[in-house]
Amino acid sequence: MNDMAEALRIAVTLVLSGDGDLWEIVLLSLRVSLSATALACLIGMPLGALLATQRFAGRGAAIVCINALMGLPPVVVGLMVYLALSRSGPLGTFGLLYTPAAMIIAQTILIAPIVAALSRQVLEALHLEYDEQFRSLGLGRVAAIRALLWDGRFALMTVGLAGFGRAIAEVGAVIVVGGNIDHLTRVMTTAIALETSKGDLALALALGLVLMVLALVVNAAVHGVRNSEGQLAHA
Question: Which residues cross the membrane (predicted)?
Answer without folding.
Answer: 32-52, 64-85, 97-118, 154-181, 201-222
